[in-house]
Design goal:
Blueprint lengths: L7 E4 L3 H20 L4 H23 L2 E6 L2 E6 L3 E6 L5 E9 L2 E9 L4 E4 L1 H4 L3 H11 L4
Antiparallel strand pairs: 1-2, 2-3, 3-4, 5-6, 6-7
Helix pairs in contact: 1-2
Length: 142
C-alpha cells in the first residue's frame, strides 16, 4: 500500500460562477424591465446582482475549497485565503444530514478544535459523503 497518497483537491464546479453571473445579469434586466421609473426597485435589483457577482468572483479567484495531502488539509479561509490544518489539529471529519422542505441537505464538517469548517456539495464538486470517505482514507494512522 502507498505510504504517501497523492494530493487531492475539491473545487467549485466550473458552471457555478457562470450561473451566478448570468443570474446577476438577469436580475439587472428584470430590474430595468419592471422598475417603471422606481429607483428603489432598480437599486435593489442592482444590489442583489452585485452580491451575486461578488459571490461568483470568489468562485473564480479561489475555486479550490479543500485539498488534502500528507501534511494535512488546506481549507479556504476568508474571501480567498487558504489555511493549512495539520492532521494533528483535525479532531473529526463528519457529514451532517438534515431534512429541509422535503429534501435532505448534506454538509461536510471538519472539526479542527478551535475552528469548524463546513462545505456543501457545490463547494466541493462532489457529495460530502464521498469527500469525507476520501479524507478519512488519506488521514495517517495515529
Amino acid at each position: 500500500m502507498d505510504e504517501n497518497p497523492p494530493a487531492r483537491q475539491w473545487r467549485v464546479p466550473v458552471s457555478l460562477p457562470a450561473a451566478k453571473l448570468a443570474g446577476g445579469v438577469l436580475l439587472v434586466a428584470l430590474g430595468l424591465l419592471f422598475a417603471d421609473g422606481d429607483t428603489v426597485r432598480l437599486g435593489l435589483a442592482v444590489l442583489a446582482a452585485a452580491a451575486l457577482a461578488g459571490w461568483a468572483v470568489r468562485d473564480l479567484v479561489a475555486p479550490v475549497r479543500l485539498a488534502v495531502d500528507t501534511a494535512g488539509l488546506t481549507v479556504i479561509h476568508g474571501f480567498a485565503g487558504r489555511r493549512l490544518l495539520p492532521w494533528s489539529a483535525v479532531e473529526a471529519i463528519a457529514v451532517d444530514r438534515r431534512p429541509r422542505l422535503g429534501l435532505t441537505s448534506e454538509t461536510l464538517e471538519i472539526d479542527a478544535g478551535n475552528s469548524l469548517h463546513l462545505f456543501g456539495r457545490y463547494d466541493l464538486g462532489a457529495t460530502p459523503e464521498e469527500v469525507a470517505a476520501a479524507l478519512r482514507a488519506a488521514r495517517p494512522v495515529r
